[in-house]
Design brief:
The structure holds two protein chains of two kinds. Chain A is α+β, with helices and mostly antiparallel strands. Chain A starts with a strand and ends in a 7-residue tail after the last helix. Chain B is globular. The chains are: A alpha+beta, B alpha/beta.
């Protein structure tokens, strides 16, 4: 029997979706539960899952097409079944009398569906009855990482009248979500939005196994939306004791990325304090030559880091899970604070660029970042990163590694501090830096040698202009 | 030679129920059965055993009748008569299945079936003829299981002094002494029956408690009740030195560090059953069995051979009629192409033992919850605190509900007491619908009933039982 693949409401507020990519081609054998395509919703890129078995006979939507929820995107059917009628209904034929299928076709498809024996035999379970899975895994769940949507569950988009997917939706005729008491408790406790869960129980009722599948799906497949989505201007109201504001994509990405970092990455930290007197003198000297030569402490640090990395590829490296990739080129990521959080544009080949070039580029990138105009090429590909909170008067801090990079340098403010020089207490401009190192790549001494090289460059900044 | 959509080999509970559902769904169906329709359950198991247990219950009631103001002068307890009644009940039920076959236009092929190819079955009919029948959609193996002796300890079945339940069900009179080896549901039920008919019963099991698959609280409660009725219960026991004679059997029983001799008229072996996998052409058809001889199936009851399915006892434990029946129904619906079939939930199959007091359960035992390291809470309510139980003088036993500590999910329910096998189903329904203990409490239970004990146990698990 043919299965219609329709644009599904993959989030409670979704009205249309853009087909990003077909993951199955016409002619591919499809099993219920297979991922057919990626669909971009208003929130994220999600998977469109097959609701029936057969061959992907026809793709009606092209990659890049945006379609309203309910639109027929493809047809899955047995190889010999005639699907012309179904396809014809999509075109001008929708006004034609809805003769679903000729009796002959209906007979044929009935016979087809009722002969699972013709499907490829699956390896039977070892001991089916002895210790069966408490709930036979059966429910296909189209559960995305559930963002707590502002819309209440009752307002969930009703399934389109045109062509609902085969499994009955969990929303009954009276608009009530059908779910078991236990499923409701689990969903409430675990923050799962019931309207996003597909029920596998009787009549499409949401049961415990569906919540568990949704949990597993949420844990295993987070898919951030394309970063080009227009940012939401956040205005925090002063009314009330607090304001709940939905997570933006970038906020979610930050959370996911940073959790990925501090969790699995065995990080250690190296702190050093550099003398900045000569760097300060150089800044003043350059500024006196002309406005076009003006550089910031940050530019000096970026340039110094780049030159030190060029000499120390052992810290200019990525952890690739089963191998380490050491880079011969130096692309320095530069964390920039923006309205929604932060982003790290990249200064490519920073070691080969002059200090004024770096200064100009850094300014441009920061400006683009604040206006959310960075292209993905401009914020991906860094080999090492720096993060500077000096301008916000932070003396010293630790930054979180941006995987797969293996190090990040946290730069504090340049401040006057009493130091001992040649046995006398004097006041000098000083700057503290802390390097976070992924110990899987960088050992203590390796990191320390890199900081020695960095100290030499920053305390003798003329080396940077040679 | 005839052609059908599906052919079932074996007309027991799995086969006959599957056949009826398949016929309801419009398939042409044949069932191959060489004995009577209904299989072990109807002919050699559930039904006649329950008929005998009804006799034993009545016998025990009559012994207490004076308390209730009824004097029965000189009652006689005749096992032979009870046996004949149980046979009549079994035959009636088998006729009932025959009627259902006619009503649903299911063909009963009387004979022994053997798979000859992936969609045909050879039948040696009762009158010696060889036939061949085609199955267009599916061949379904529902051949069941049979009793097996314990030859490894010298207890080979001989049908006179070493018998199985098959012979026990047709004994003309109750023996004076009997050892029952195996204290599962079958062993406990026959211990109850023969005890009521005056036999000195010794119930023996190698496991540390009787009804070893049940929650240990229920096992202990039943053992206590049996001992009160002078059934000797020996658990954690090892049998040796078996000597089988013409009119008696002797053996040594080692338990609790000491050895005791035992001589009985009859040994009833109630330990284990073997799947019927021989001579149905499994190997040639490519149908694989596991190391215990059960046919391997997946969740859709498909065997390793395309187009061949297996359901019921032959497809693995739990060997319960209602498990096989559900498999038959689900398979018929799968074969009909129903896209919304709810597969068999093996985690929610109730267990029922019909001795007195009855024992019934569903879900996990407390020990299993511990082994799985689940966070749980137990609620318990004894029938001694139930008004309804007192009125009938049946105050043994309790309801025990194990719930998830956080979500209230009913992880397991265990009932021992009068009518336990009937009242359990409230909790089976609750679990099938994923009701928690709160929903059980929400349902108003009529007063006075035994079922109130369930509501009270649910409340007790929440720390707020009212009646205790």
């Amino acid at each position: 029997m043919a299965t219609k693949v329709v644009m599904e409401a993959l989030s409670p507020t979704m009205e249309e979706g853009r087909l990003v990519k077909w993951l199955k081609n016409e002619g591919d054998a499809i099993k219920s539960g297979d991922v057919l395509a990626e669909v971009e919703t208003d929130k994220a890129i999600m998977e469109l899952v097959a609701r029936g078995d057969g061959i992907l006979r026809k793709q009606l939507a092209k990659e890049g097409d945006a379609s309203p929820v309910g639109t027929l995107l493809a047809v899955i059917a047995p190889a010999e079944e005639n699907i012309d009628q179904i396809i014809a209904q999509v075109g001008g034929g929708s006004t034609a009398a809805p003769t679903a299928a000729t009796p002959a076709t209906a007979q044929q498809s009935q016979g087809e569906a009722s002969t699972p024996a013709q499907e490829p035999a699956q390896e039977p379970a070892q001991e089916p009855a002895q210790e069966p899975a408490q709930e036979p895994a059966q429910g296909a769940v189209a559960a995305p990482p559930a963002p707590p949507p502002p819309a209440p569950a009752r307002a969930a988009a009703p399934p389109p009248a045109a062509a609902p997917p085969p499994p009955p939706p969990s929303v009954g005729a009276n608009g009530r979500q059908r779910s078991s008491p236990l499923a409701r408790r689990l969903a409430t406790d675990r923050g799962i939005e019931l309207s996003l869960v597909r029920g596998s129980g009787p009549g499409g009722r949401i049961v415990k196994r569906d919540i568990e599948s949704a949990m597993a799906a949420a844990a295993s497949k987070p898919r951030p939306a394309a970063a080009t989505a227009a940012p939401v201007k956040r205005v925090i109201s002063r009314e009330g004791d607090y304001q709940d504001i939905p997570l933006t994509q970038i906020r979610k990405t930050i959370a996911r990325r940073l959790a990925e970092s501090l969790g699995p990455i065995p990080t250690f930290y190296l702190t050093a304090e550099f003398d900045m007197v000569r760097a300060a003198e150089m800044r003043t000297a350059l500024k006196e030559i002309g406005e076009e030569f003006k550089v910031s402490f940050n530019d000096i640090v970026v340039k110094a880091v780049a030159n030190a990395l060029a000499d120390h590829p052992e810290v200019n490296a990525h952890w690739m899970v089963d191998h380490i990739r050491y880079f011969n080129r130096v692309h320095v990521g530069m964390a920039v604070a923006i309205e929604e959080g932060l982003i790290t544009p990249v200064i490519f080949d920073a070691d080969r660029k002059t200090l004024p070039e770096i200064s100009r580029e850094a300014k441009q990138l920061a400006e683009l970042a604040r206006n959310r105009r960075l292209t993905p090429e401009q914020y991906t590909g860094s080999t090492f990163s720096v993060s500077n909170l000096g301008m916000l008067d932070i003396d010293q801090f630790t930054a979180i590694i941006n995987p797969p990079e293996s190090g990040i340098l946290a730069i504090g403010a340049v401040t006057e501090r009493p130091v001992i020089v040649d046995g006398n207490v004097t006041v000098r401009h000083r700057m503290r830096v802390t390097m976070s190192c992924d110990h899987r790549v960088i050992d203590g001494a390796t990191g320390a040698r890199f900081l020695q090289a960095l100290r030499r460059l920053i305390e003798n900044p003329l080396l940077l202009v040679l | 030679m005839a052609s059908y959509d599906v052919i079932f080999i074996g007309g027991g509970p799995a086969g006959y129920v599957g056949a009826i559902r398949a016929a309801q769904l419009g398939m042409s169906v044949a069932v191959i059965e060489r004995e009577l329709l209904g299989g072990t359950c109807v002919i050699w198991g559930c039904i006649p055993a329950k008929a005998l247990l009804e006799s034993s219950a009545l016998a025990n009631k009559i012994r207490k009748a004076a308390e209730f103001g009824i004097t029965v002068a000189d009652p006689k307890f005749d096992y032979g008569v009870a046996m004949k009644r149980s046979r009549a009940v079994a035959t009636q039920n088998s006729k009932g299945v025959e009627f259902l076959f006619k009503k649903n236009k299911i063909t009963w092929i009387k004979g022994t079936g053997r798979i000859s190819s992936k969609n045909s079955v050879a039948v040696k009919s009762a009158d010696g003829k060889d036939e061949k029948h085609d199955a267009k959609k599916a061949v379904i193996i529902s051949t069941g299981s049979r009793v097996k002796g314990l030859p490894q300890i010298g207890l080979e079945l001989n049908k006179t002094t070493v018998i199985s339940s098959d012979e026990a069900l047709i004994l003309e009179k109750a023996p004076k002494t009997m050892a029952i080896v195996g204290a599962g549901a079958v062993g406990c039920e026959f211990a109850d029956v023969f005890n009521a008919f005056g036999t000195q019963v010794t119930l023996i099991d190698v496991m540390p408690g009787i009804l070893p698959l049940e929650d240990s609280d229920c096992s202990a409660e039943l053992a206590k009740s049996f001992k009160k009725r002078k059934i000797e219960v020996v658990t954690g026991a090892k049998i040796s030195n078996v000597k089988v004679g013409k009119s008696s059997v002797s053996m040594s029983i080692d338990a609790g560090g000491k050895s005791q001799p035992l001589e009985v008229e009859v040994v009833l072996v109630a330990a284990g059953r073997a799947p019927n996998i021989e001579e149905i052409g499994l190997k040639e058809a490519g149908v694989q069995v596991n190391d215990r001889g059960f046919i391997k199936i997946n969740e859709k009851m498909e065997t390793t051979a395309k187009g061949i399915y297996a359901i019921g006892d032959v497809a693995g434990p739990p060997m319960l009629a209602h498990k096989g029946q559900r498999e038959g129904v689900v398979l018929a619906e799968l074969l009909a192409g129903d896209p919304h079939v709810q597969l068999v939930n093996y985690g929610n199959i109730p267990n029922a033992t019909y001795c007195h007091p009855e024992v019934a359960s569903v879900g996990l035992t407390e020990q299993q919850c511990k082994d799985k390291k689940l966070e749980y809470k137990v609620g318990k309510f004894p029938f001694s605190a139930s008004g309804r139980a007192r009125t009938s003088g049946e105050t043994e036993g309790f309801v025990k509900i194990i719930r998830d500590a956080k979500y209230g999910e009913i992880l397991g329910a265990h009932i021992i007491g009068s009518h336990a096998t009937e009242i359990l189903h409230e909790l089976v329904v609750a679990r099938a619908n994923e009701f928690t203990v709160d929903e059980v409490d929400l349902a108003i239970h009529a007063h006075p009933t035994l079922s109130e004990a369930i509501a009270q146990a649910a409340l007790d698990s929440l720390g707020r039982a009212l009646d205790i």
